[in-house]
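May I ask you for just one protein sequence along with its backbone structure tokens in two labelled lines?

_____
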Amino acid sequence: MLRFLLVLSVAGLMFAQTTTRTAATATSSSAFKLGGAEVQVAGIPNWPVAAGDEVQAGAAPVLISFRDGNRVTLARGSKAKIEKNGDKTLLRLLDGSCSYILKSRLSFGLMAGDKPAEVSGLRGSLSTASAAKAAGNLPVSAEVLLPPPPPTPISR
């Protein structure tokens, strides 16, 4: 009985450590990269994303849902890194573009490369300098636009 309680306690501690480390979940209708590894999405709709992880969309957008209710959709081929700065979670867009729907800006921040994004509303889009240049030298800032719909759910 004591052995069972010890195993149960260790399992509970491991679960608690995993859930506090998880900053978000990533969902896509096709394979994407998470932490440099190719993620095959068949049968597993949501993948945990921790602070320090890089997410790169493949042939389909990737929806990143954060614990505080904020959501970011990476466009096809775009790449971002999830970071923590004290109590604040940051999404650093490394390449490409994304759209976002924010619940709160107090616990969440957006960056385009090394620059903080100028977020003027709770919905909008963001692109990196390289993506903006490819699109015709648009400014590197967030624009208030409706984001594209989230990826289609993965059938089971």
